[in-house]
Amino acid sequence: MSLPPGFLDELRTRISLSQVVGRKVMWDMRKSNQGKGDMWAPCPFHQEKSASFHVDDRKGFYYCFGCHAKGDAVSFVRETENVGFMEAVEILAREAGMPMPARDPRAQQKADRRTQLAEVMEQAVNFYRMQLSTAQGAAARDYLDRRKLSQGARDRFGIGFAPAGWQGLWDHLTGKGVAEDLILEAGLAKASSKGGKPYDTFRNRIMFPIRDARGRAIAFGGRAMDPTDSAKYLNSPETPLFDKGRSLYNHGPAREAAGKGQPLIVAEGYMDVIALSEAGFGAAVAPLGTAITEDQLRLMWRISPEPVIALDGDAAGMRAAQRVIDLALPLLEAGNALRFCLMPEGQDPDELIKAQGAAGMQAALDAAQPMVRLLWQRETEGKVFDSPERKAALDKSLRAAISKIADPSIRSHYGEEIKQLRWELFGQSRRRPEGQGGAPRRNGSWKPGKWSEVKLGPAPTTKNSLLAAASDIAIEDRLREALILATLIAHPSLILRFEAELEGVELHGDGHNALRNALLRHAEVSDPGELREKIAAEAGEALEMLYSLGHVTTAPPVRKTTDTELAMMCVAEELAKLEARRGVQREIEDAMEDLSGLADEGLTWRLSQAAEARNRAGQSHLEDATDLGEDRAAMSKHLQSLIDGEIWVKKKS
User: Fold this and answer.
1) How does strand 189-190 pair with strand 38-41?
2) Rounded Cα distance, 381 and 362, in Å
3) Confidence category of residue 101, pLDDT binned at 50, 70, 90
4) Strand 265-266 and strand 308-313: pairing?
5) Could you tell me if residue 447 is inside a domain?
6) Which residues contact 136 (CB under 8 A, 6 or more apart)?
7) Which domain holds residue 397?
8) Which of 566, 583, 580 lies closest to 629, judged by CA?
9) pLDDT (0 to 100) of residue 584
10) In terms of domains, do 420 and 525 share one?
11) What pLDDT, on the 0 to 100 scale, is given for residue 471?
12) Does 452 reside within a domain?
């Protein structure tokens, strides 16, 4: 029946939730504050000794921090008294002295109809169970024996057998006076298209009753005994009792077991659920012949905040996992998560338990991975990222996936985790010249390395004289690198802007690599002070050395922390200059290597002169190292002329 507007609000204001709950619990008065309506007790929905069940009398809601049961007075009566919504309202209305509104005849008729259908379904359960013990059910019993399904399990789950005849159940039910329209509406039989007598929906199948959270039989799943049958598993059609996208197999017992602390395991089929339950994993459910739906996922989260999706260890299982990921991403929020337990290849939970017992299944559950890891695996497995374009494609797909997450906090944490996984994949995949070091991989994670023998730069007391006398162009590179790193530390908002360039640039020594690694790991930090603290915790020695250089501490982009445009221009320019100079260096080195032993003496001399001229051009600008914004046009023009002239090519006389 429908209730008039405001009736429920009036009912809730007239009753005290603590009084309603107080009939079922013993309050912990040491923890409760009765004057404020803040009451605590052991939860009535799961076994516990501590008082984790909280009632807020003023707001009219309860919540258990153990099993996560929550609701108001109506839902509490429904759950504890095992009654429907209207029955719970009637109980509370009588307690509050409120007359119930007149019943809507059509609504009452509809409720009565569902009750009749449920009674017919229960009669069908009994018929199928009886048929399993007959001669016709011998093959089905043999199958269940081969699957090692005990008699106790068969009884607990109400397993039966639908005989091969066309009207076995129909004749049984009509013979007991059940109306034909009820049999048809319950989905137990189908009307004949040829005008004959209706025929049974299920024939020659092992029958698994499907029950709702209250334990009422609402549908069946039938497993075909004939291997040539077009449908190995067949579910009841949708009826007033059954919506397969909103139901879960073993819902009620799983909710009870999860309330007692067991993890909720989501398997693919009936036999998996039964095997899990018999092995001691009572909080096991399965979708009903389809991929997991949004409604089923929400049902799971009402049972447990972090269901474990246990999928078959094959390609189909991985595809199912991928579908669940896409479904769940927009629905994630604090307290609603998923973990994935992938079975050994070629096995499902039933087979794993038979092979390795409950201990083997527990080991697989213990190894379950959070959803972010499956998302990463889906986007990277079997792919090669040996070009900027492929890396960019990966970034695009990951961004598209993460953008589906509505909760900003979870979206941020996913981004942080993906960034770490990405750095583990790409951080050391580039080939580096010997001696340039890098952050070594240890146990799947990146750890900043120690300083190599080649330091970032000279000590503060000697750096100026060293720079003035230096002939090694690598010192100039290190100073550029230092300015880039210091500028990004002072302007964290630019890290993501230059992420790709920062990843690809070759840096001198483990110190600069450690700083670069730390910058990329904490790219989401927006406060310069906080970022500096995090980097100091991971690469303190490198950070100290960085700020010991005068040109770093006095450089305008580092000092002017509010001038982001200046900093962006500086980083872009210095990165471009590094890449340009190193590109020329690689060109000349490659040419010298290719011509080794083949060029004449004059050509070799000209090539060596070009390299020497480049070094002189670079060194001349190191005289004033306190400001790296100097004009490099002269050096660039000279080097470009050498390249344009192709001096390493032997000219025809």
Assistant:
1) unpaired
2) 26
3) confident
4) parallel
5) no
6) 161, 163, 164
7) 248-426
8) 566
9) 61
10) no
11) 37
12) no
Contact 579, 505 (CB under 8 A): yes
- Taking the C-alpha atoms of residue 608 and residue 615, their distance in angstroms, rounded to an integer, is 11
**Are 388 and 356 in the same domain?**
yes
Residue identified by tokens 């001038």 is 563
- Do the Cβ atoms of 198 and 207 come closer than 8 Å? no
* DSSP H/E element including 361: helix 349-366
d(CA 311, CA 317): 5
Query: Checking DSSP bridges between strand 160-162 and strand 369-370, what pairing results, if any?
Result: unpaired
CA-to-CA distance for 492 and 521, rounded, in angstroms?
A: 12
Co-location of 290 and 365 in the same domain: yes
The residue type at 360: G
CB-CB contact of 566 with 487 (8 Å): no
Distance CA 417, CA 565 (A): 29
Task: Specify the pTM.
Answer: 0.57
Locate 543 and state its tokens: 């950070």
Q: Which residues contact 114 (CB under 8 A, 6 or more apart)?
A: 240, 241
Question: Listing from the earlier edge strand, what are the strands of the sheet with 160-162?
Answer: 160-162, 205-211, 217-224, 233-235
β-partners of residue 333 are 336
One domain for residues 502 and 625: yes
Count of domains for the chain = 4
pLDDT of residue 644: 52
Give first-to-last CA distance, the chain, whole Å: 105
Q: Whole-angstrom Cα distance, residue 219 to residue 242?
A: 6
pLDDT at 477: 79
Write out pLDDT tens, residues 163-202.
Answer: 999 999 999 999 999 999 999 999 999 998 887 899 999 9
